[in-house]
Write a structure and sequence with these properties.
Strand content: 15-25%
Number of helices: 5
CATH topology: Rossmann fold
Distance between the termini: 16 Å
Helix content: 40-55%
Order of helices and strands: EHEHEHEHEH
Structural class: alpha/beta
Strand order of the largest sheet: 2-1-3-4-5
CATH superfamily: Response regulator
Shape: globular
Number of domains: 1
């Protein structure tokens, strides 16, 4: 069976290396990018089963990044579920995230088992709806 591919977008190296290790141990193929612009470019040439993105990043923030990605995917007749992660409780950002659509919103720090359970639930729902 083909490994499910997850794109992780976060500007913090510690977060990306930690997530990559956790996701690898859980059986996922993980691609890391440190910027929204780089993520948008990757989406043009590669496909992913899930996107995990920080909301607050310099340059193109997570909201703008995911809006651009979802717009490009929709233009190609594709979709991809999204999990936002953030260290900040910000109702305005959460409302903006809801407006572009996401499957989950997780606050850092988070419980690893719960995090993996949420990923598996979302990917399971994606497979069932295909």
């Amino acid at each position: 069976m083909k490994k499910q591919r997850i794109l992780v977008i976060d500007d913090e190296q510690l977060i990306t290396s930690t997530l990559k290790g956790i996701l690898k141990r859980s059986g996922f193929e993980t691609v890391i990018t440190n910027s929204g612009g780089e993520a948008v470019s990757l989406i043009e040439h590669e496909s992913f089963d899930l996107i995990i993105s920080d909301i607050r990043m310099p340059g193109m923030d997570g909201i703008r990044t995911l809006h651009e990605i979802k717009t490009r995917l929709a233009g190609a007749g594709k979709t991809c579920p999204v999990i936002f992660i953030t260290g900040f409780a910000d109702e305005k950002l959460e409302a903006e995230a809801k407006a572009i659509g996401f499957e989950d919103y997780i606050y850092k720090p988070f419980d690893l088992k719960t995090f993996i359970d949420r990923i598996n639930r979302i990917l399971g729902e994606k497979i069932q709806s295909s």
